Each structure stands twice: as C-alpha cells, then as structure tokens.
Amino acid sequence: MCLLLIVSTLTFSQKKHIQLTNGLLVAQLDRPEEKFTLEINLAELFSAENVKVVPSLNLLKQGEVASVLVSDSVTNILKSKNIDTYILVSVRGFDKNFRLSSHFEPLSNELASSHLFPLFRDDILSVTFEFTLYRNNEVVANELLRIKNVDSKDKVMKKLRKKLPKLISKWKK
Fold first, then answer.
1. Which domains does the chain carry?
2. CA distance 32 to 111
3. Which end of the chain, N or C, is less packed with Cβ atoms under 10 Å?
4. Nearest to residue 28, comparing CAs of 157, 132, 114?
5. Where do the H-state alpha helices sit in 17-152?
6. Whole-angstrom Cα distance, residue 13 to residue 9?
7. What is the pLDDT along the chain (173 residues), one digit of tens a residue?
C-alpha cells in the first residue's frame, strides 16, 4: 500500500512539468462553427505564448470524425511536423464547481467520444472548460478553467483569451 502511494505521487509530480512546446489542438464540440471559433482563438493564444499548435481542422476533412487523428497517416504527419502532444479542449459544464477527472480514457476513446455541451447557452453564469494533454497516448496534464459572469459567446471567448495564457505558461515549464 505504501509503495503504491509513493509511485502515484511520483507519477503526479512528473506530470507537473510537461514543457509544452507544440501540440495538435482538438476542440471537442459538436457544432462545427463553435469548434472552428474555439480552435482558431486558442491557436492564436498558444502562438502568442510561443507554443506551436496545429488546429485539428487543418487535418480533418469536413464532417470527418476526430478519431481519425490517431490513425497512422495522421500520426506520421504530426511526427514530420515535430508535434508530440494532443491538446483536447471540451466544455465540462455550466454553473457548477467541477473536480478534475481521476480516470482518463485512452486517447483514441476520448477522441471518439461525443461532447454534448455547446460553447455557450442562455441563462448561464459560468462555463467550465477542461483541457487534457496527451503525450505518447498518456495524459500528462489535466486542468479545469472556469469562466465566470458570462452572458454571451463573445464574452466567454474574451474571458478565455484573458485567462488561458497563465495556464499555457504553466504547461511550458
């Protein structure tokens, strides 16, 4: 029991310093226009922090499912561009406090799963985003980012643009 606890602590501490320099950005939203909006805005934020990212929309054909992103052909394209990290972004929910996930699906399962929450909906006060970073098919970071006092999709994006650079800086260390 003691050995298991020590191993868990070591694994957690290794995940804190991921030295993010690049990534494939995957917004897990059902609406194509929201996915486009989120990926483009996030790509700009990561670039401003000197993290090279490729939006998944650059690799997916229109209507293609995200699980294609772990296929051999796409993996080879990413390797040729020196991209080794998948950055998955989803809306975890609205108006609640959420806890970090303790159980993670394999990358292929996570990409194949559907996410029902839109970027914004009427009558909400806050939206919580979940960022999960995979490297070598293992989770290296998982963070929740809560955006409060929002009343429109534009306000969600504006506040996300303000808060996310701090999180990106943390991942770069």
1. 20-172 (3.40.50)
2. 15
3. N
4. 114
5. 32-48, 72-80, 107-112
6. 6
7. 444 433 333 333 334 678 999 999 999 988 889 999 999 999 999 999 999 999 999 998 887 888 889 999 899 999 999 999 999 999 888 878 888 877 888 999 999 887 777 788 888 889 999 999 999 999 999 999 999 999 888 999 999 999 999 999 999 98
